[in-house]
Amino acid sequence: MAAKKIEGGELSGLETPKVGPTGRPIRSFPVPEQLGTHGPARIIALCNQKGGVGKTTTTISLGATLAEYGRKVLVIDFDPQGALSAGLGINTHELTTIYDLLLGTVKDTRSAVVATHVPNLDLIPANIDLSAAEVHLVNEVAREQILSRVLRQVANDYDVILIDCQPSLGLLTINALTAAHGVLIPLECEFFALRGVALLVETVDKVRDRLNPSIKLDGILPTMYDSRTLHAREVLERVVEAFGDDVLDTVIGRTVKFPDASISGIPITSYAPEHPASEAYRQLARELISRGAVA
User: Fold this and answer.
1) What's the pLDDT at 175?
2) CA separation (Å) from 108 to 79, 84, 103?
3) Which of 206, 215, 149, 211 is nearest to 180 (CA)?
4) Residue 148: other Cβ atoms inside 10 A
5) Number of Cβ atoms within 10 Å of the Cβ of 263
6) Which end of the chain, N or C, is surrounded by fewer C-beta atoms within 10 Å?
7) Does pLDDT of 196 surpass 90?
8) Range of the domain at 157
């Protein structure tokens, strides 16, 4: 074989791999095959004790893209603000909610499941009533495992269940972590958001030791990234240095299309299917499937 000619200090014919925002070479994740059968579900909790980091947007958009790829998806609104329900255009007035299931006033989990406008994507809604749940549950036996018992009834109906947690590390979030097989941490590329990630990872470790030995960290998802700002680039660099391969390759950029889609009550993949943000969430779905976090 003839030796490659050296030009300008580089081997001619060799391309330098393109590098993504995380500093790693950009990888292409394959489009997954459709599933022949469905269930049992892998449960993923989307957690961050800081608000406004993209948990709800990620739950909606990831759920919708997994549904696009033929997965049957159930999303759980586990935040008293009810943003997930509103973001999917569901009016929770007079609906059975996750609060009713937690308190046991409604026994049948399937009766709370609501079909969304997205094929293969269902929702268990929430509203402000959920804010009282921690007070009511604090004296219950095995109070950390109540959500696990609720979801057990529907686990075989779905391929993945996504839990949109409230921005706290209280009893509701502990319930979500106890029920989950994995945790996905959306992280805004901003300094104050970075400070709390170590505490959240420590909480996940405690839940693993005491309540749920099988839970694993599925990944840290950088969100609201703006490559034009030095601050965002530095924060992302520090996250990668601190958490290594736990940081996903997919990075979600900042765009006004997200609130526009939320106001419309549909996922961004339906509101603006060709937008780079939609493609970013499709890449996230493919990456999680490639990592084995989703079937």
Assistant:
1) 96
2) 21, 21, 12
3) 215
4) 18
5) 12
6) N
7) no
8) 36-291
